[in-house]
Design a protein that fits this description.
9 strands, alpha/beta, 4-stranded parallel sheet, Rossmann fold, globular, about 290 residues, about 40% helix
Amino acid sequence: MTRPSLAIITGLSGAGRTTAAKVLEDLGYFVIDNMPPALIERVVDLATAPGSAVDRVALVVDVRGRAFFGDLRQTLSGLSERGLRPRVLFLEAADETLVKRYEAARRAHPLSGRDRIVDGIARERRLLADLRGQADLVVDTTDLNVHQLRDKLVDSFGAESREGLVCNVVTFGFKNGSPRDADILLDVRFLPNPHWVEELRPFDGLDDRVRDYVLGQPETGPFLERLGGLFDVMVPAFVKEGKHYLTIGIGCTGGKHRSVAMGEELAAHIRRLGVDVQVDHRDRLKE
């Protein structure tokens, strides 16, 4: 029996599920929208039947299905017992962003009834809280346009040969806000800031001079050694558990110097563990 790649697209209404479904369809997934959880195993049976040409399936599951959670938990458990672990993509956005999107589209939120849109969003957040915690990949679309969301999903789902854990290291500046979809947040503001060294200020953490300054601090070596030991334990455990995506945020004040240099070091260490690592220096070019 062949085992198809199975993705479940879910999350908050208005957060980009339709866009995500189109992206995965373009990547060769057979996509079914508004999928009742009780029928998921039947779809998998058809995809794994002799002669089936379907090797990638993406199912959009959301609160339109209403009686959703008990069925979905039971279905995911049943698939796991069969050795199939779907990649669960959870999309979300800030309340004010979702409200603006609904107002622009002149649509009612599926859970708002006669109440305000924001009330429907609050109900949906509570309803989806457990599922969000179980998701492999959480993507916050608050600050993403359609093209940026597409690029992010192509990076995560696009490589047919990619198996196992994919790690995203995002460097950032706390003054610009931490990444909302990070699984792990690290703060390197305890290190001296190259911003206050006049000859280093114009450069960023990819420059050898800044890198040498950051890595040359007496606290850096012990920190990286202990951090490396932590990920030596965590990463293989995540792989064993079947986790597909891990997003690590590493921040300093502005996201230009310390976090960039330290993010590169952390990414290099995780790559040595045999994991595919992508690095995004989110705020490197900001002032």
